[in-house]
Design brief:
15 strands; about 25% helix; alpha/beta; about 500 residues; 8-stranded parallel beta barrel; 3-stranded antiparallel sheet; 12 helices
Length: about 500
């Protein structure tokens, strides 16, 4: 007979370990304003004050989960009874009808010092006015996705040009559907000054290596959205576009960033900013041979080196390792201490313009900052959000770190002004030159792709994307100074 072992301390079946009391969050006055954020060189700026902007962000994609030991494997918790039904992955949690869910979440983000929230799935046929207005009143900007999970997506498994041209039975033309969806999202959200950026696509290579051959489709969608913004520039603000990539590490991390930010056929196909989803900082310190903590020994050291001369704003569009030192199980005592946040404002101060902590709500991947109501059966989580230790740790880091004021003073309507006019930069940040054919060929060979290198040609604009609701531009008002600033990034004379 096999010996029996007592359960591990975090694996007692059917036991709800009490949730420890947490501090009460301060009330944040809903009296903020959110002037549009604009790009100057490789930095972001408040268009009204000319001060530098750094996105202290939180990812938001709640599913109203309950603790599930079958999925989460460990933990001393039992499931509660969420008041709201579970949301499908493709659902839109920022819709007006979910105000009871996101209202407190936005207030909590503001209380922790966040000024940005990143969303992942938007239904352009329903209203988000309540969410956007609430976020704005709390001083929170929003990163809006242009691709969706179930309809309006770029198929990463299809090399270009197919990822923008193929017909899928029962779905239709992928290029037509994704561009129509993206344009409808742009048309709805361009009215809000607190839209920080649009995510044109996310992690194309995470599930299929053919995603490397689908990057021309990302650039084609970028081109077509930029041209839609130009066509409607009199009544729609030109919100910057960002691509959010998985942190694939060297040697191709910088190469992909360089490709997506360079001009293949025209300036329109280059994204305005670049994002990395980074989960490599899994220890509280990185000592060198002497035992002293040394940034160069951290996984962020190579990122700084690779992107030190990058010409576009760089953001960590997701970050927050939950392994190693930071691994924890329900009820999630301790966990992430966010010691990397200070590096964004020190070692990365000239290079980075934002970082988005993943994620607000606890889901099956266990990255949450908070337990949504009914996640556990504990009374402290019954009908209300319970904020975890790593929420308060991030709150401390966000509130104790501020972006350098050395490059403040932007002349936001001047197309010639650059950050070095305010203060000397350590690095030159020249426009990206596209990767050479040999560089791309080596990547394709190393990734064992079955297709020839295809990054030098982009698919054409799909048909059927200028009808019905998209036959006319939105009828919003663009402030003269914001229109003028937008003309720094597009040829308004062509409108």
């Amino acid at each position: 007979q096999a010996p029996t072992h007592p359960p591990k301390p975090h694996d007692i079946a059917g036991y709800q370990e009490p949730l420890a009391p947490q501090p009460t969050l301060p009330k944040v006055a809903a009296d903020k304003t959110t002037p549009p954020i604009v790009i100057k060189g490789n930095m972001l700026y408040d268009s009204k004050t000319g001060t530098r902007f750094f996105a202290k962000g939180v990812a938001y994609n709640p599913r109203n989960m309950r603790f599930n030991k079958g999925q989460m494997h460990h933990g001393n918790c039992t499931p509660g009874e969420p008041e709201l039904a579970a949301l499908a992955y493709a659902a839109d949690p920022a819709a007006d009808k979910y105000e009871s869910l996101w209202g407190e979440a936005l207030e909590a983000m503001a209380a922790m010092g966040a000024n940005t929230v990143r969303l992942y799935n938007i239904d352009p046929e329903i209203s988000h006015k309540k969410f956007m207005d609430k976020a704005s009143s709390l001083g929170i900007y929003v990163i809006i996705p242009l691709t969706r999970h179930d309809w309006g997506f770029l198929p990463a498994g299809s090399p270009a040009p197919l990822c923008y041209t193929e017909e899928i039975e029962g779905y239709g033309n992928v290029g037509t559907n994704v561009l129509v969806s993206a344009k409808l999202i742009v048309k709805q959200f361009s009215q809000y000054d607190n839209v920080l950026m649009y995510t044109v696509a996310n992690e194309m290579t995470v599930a299929d290596k053919n995603g490397y051959a689908a990057f021309p489709c990302v650039k084609a969608l970028t081109r077509d959205v930029h041209r839609y913004q130009k066509e409607c520039s009199q009544s729609m603000r030109r919100v910057p576009l960002i691509y959010s990539d998985m942190d694939m590490g060297p040697p191709y991390r910088e190469l992909v960033g360089r490709y997506l930010t360079c001009e293949v056929e025209s300036p329109d196909d280059a994204v305005d900013a670049y994002g990395l989803n980074v989960y490599s900082w899994c220890d509280s310190s990185y000592p060198d041979e002497t035992g002293k903590n040394n940034f160069e020994y951290s996984p962020y050291g190579p990122i700084r080196k690779e992107f030190s001369k990058f010409s576009k704003p760089l953001l960590f569009t997701e970050f927050g390792c939950n392994l190693g030192t930071f691994e924890t199980f329900c009820p999630y005592k301790g966990g992430r201490t966010w010691t990397d946040v200070s590096t964004f404002f020190a070692e990365f101060k000239e290079i980075m313009s934002g970082a988005v902590a993943f994620e607000f709500s606890m889901e099956d991947n266990q990255y949450g900052l908070a337990l949504t109501p009914g996640f556990t059966s504990d009374k402290a989580n019954d009908g209300k959000i319970y904020y975890l230790d790593n929420f308060f740790a991030l709150k401390s880091e966000f509130q104790n770190n501020t972006v350098s004021a050395e490059w403040d003073g932007a002349k936001t309507t001047s197309c010639d002004w650059k950050p070095s006019d305010a203060h000397k930069l350590e690095y030159d940040h020249e426009d990206q030159k596209c990767p050479s054919y040999n560089e791309v060929a080596k990547l394709f060979k190393d990734k064992s792709l079955a297709v020839a290198p295809n990054w030098d040609t982009l698919p054409p604009k799909p048909n059927g994307t200028d009808t019905d609701a998209l036959a006319t531009c939105a009828e919003y008002k663009v402030a003269p100074d914001i229109y003028k600033e937008g003309c720094c990034h597009m040829k308004c004379s062509e409108v």
